[in-house]
Amino acid sequence: MIERAVAADAGEILTVQRAAYVSEAQLYGDPYILPLVESLEQMRKAIEGAVVLKALDAGRIVGAVRGQLSGATCVVGRLVVAPDRQGQGLGTALLRALHEEMPGASAFDLFTGHLSEGNVRLYRRLGYRETHRERMDDHLTLVHLRRVADPR
Predict the structure, then answer these.
(1) Phi, psi torsion values for 75, nearest 5 degrees
(2) Which CA distances in Å does 124 have to 2, 85, 92, 129?
(3) What's the CA gap between 136 and 124, in Å, rounded?
(4) What is the pLDDT of residue 151?
(5) Are 71 and 79 in contact (CB under 8 A)?
(6) Residue 89: left (phi > 0), alpha (psi -120 to 50), or beta?
(7) Angle at CA of residue 143, ends 30 and 17, nearest 5°
(8) Whole-prediction pTM value?
(9) Per residue in 31-87, pLDDT tens?
(10) Among 24, 25, 97, 152, which residue has the fewest nearby CB atoms (within 10 Å)?
(11) CA neighbor of 56 nearest in space, from 8, 100, 2
């Protein structure tokens, strides 16, 4: 089941986010990536100021994604799935639900690290296309992707 998150979900979503991003931190050799150092208060503010969807399984939050409109573009962030539930289609379901939740968006933009090949494959399967790369430092280049919304 996928539904909108509320402020009371912040702690559980933050726990899932941290668990999900440990592998990314290891991949890039950086334990201080933003999803790992985000505070509970920052998570609450994100839930209050953006569309945050959560995936539930028997009452447990097993995934989440954020979307924030910037003009007519939805900026997608923090797609996370609990490590024990990865590879079961939850990331796909969360992104599709976000696409449906943001009917006014003409496009969806997101980014991931260049070494995160599974993430790039997922986004491409869902219609995202690479727009550019942005070198952040010696160990990280961000891959920016965009999906043009389906015409209604």
Answers:
(1) -90, 115
(2) 22, 21, 11, 6
(3) 22
(4) 62
(5) no
(6) left
(7) 50
(8) 0.93
(9) 888 899 999 999 999 999 999 999 999 999 999 999 999 999 999 999 999 999 999
(10) 152
(11) 2
Which position has the token pair 């919304």? 149
Nearest residue to 53 via CA among 15, 84, 97, 88: 97
Nearest-CA neighbor of 93 among 51, 64, 118?
64
> CATH number of the domain at 2-148, please?
3.40.630.30
How many residues are recorded in the chain?
152
DSSP secondary structure, the chain, as one string:
-EEE--GGGHHHHHHHHHHHHHHHHHHHT-TT-HHHH--HHHHHHHHHHSEEEEEEETTEEEEEEEEEEETTEEEEEEEEE-GGGTTSSHHHHHHHHHHHH-TT-SEEEEEEETT-HHHHHHHHHTT-EEEEEEEEETTEEEEEEEEEPPP-
Residues 37, 30: Cα–Cα separation, whole Å: 11
pLDDT score recorded for residue 140: 87
